Amino acid sequence: RLLECLDYLDEQLPHTTMRAFVLRASTTLPRSFARSAKHSSNRRSVSTTTRASSSDGDMNLSDGCKGAPVADGVALPIVCGEDVMSAKAHGTTETSVQENLRWSCDFKTADKICSFNRHYAEHGGYWEGTSFLAEVDRTVETTYYDSVTGKPLFIAPRGRTMEAFLKESKSHGWPSFRDEEVVWANVRCLKNGEAVSTAGTHLGHNLPDRTGNRYCINLVSVAGNPM
Length: 227
Hints:
By secondary structure, this protein is of the alpha+beta class. It is built from five helices and nine strands, in the order H-H-E-H-E-H-E-E-H-E-E-E-E-E. A five-stranded antiparallel beta sheet has the order 5-9-8-7-6. Strand 7 and strand 8 form a beta hairpin. The N terminus is likely disordered.
């Protein structure tokens, strides 16, 4: 019954009018319901979050990415204060994102996420809908530049294969980087796990797993050209 309600809401509620519609599934669901949901082949599974949009009707952004608090005394990530994300000439950055972003990333979406946002993300899988997969060189490392300043932020893959990098990124819905792939001269994290550039660009969030820190990053934030 709950699944039927979710399907109905998904069809009836336009994403363009929702600021944030988040459903958190109970961790104490009855076993009978869990079995029914698991074995139902003709209904979608219950997600812990639904996609949300910003107040801009033409941008479908995700509200599902939350950072993990950074523990005291750890070497990485390098933690910064809120002053890095203070108000500047263009939101949290001095200028807008570059006009000619790589991989056909959308300028308006990028500018919103990078400079006027602390919470939302490009929707899961957005990066796979760009030209990234068709253009990225799978034989060498790729440098990912700040979409605002053009400074290097990530270099990947390092310490793993391109196949491993792409597999992990696809499984999570966003490009996912590890500690050794971060250019720490230009990247910081706030105590709440938000990943940012030293210039004030919102990048994404740190979501550690059993293998270490994993930086879940918006492609639109790292699609800049070197400057």
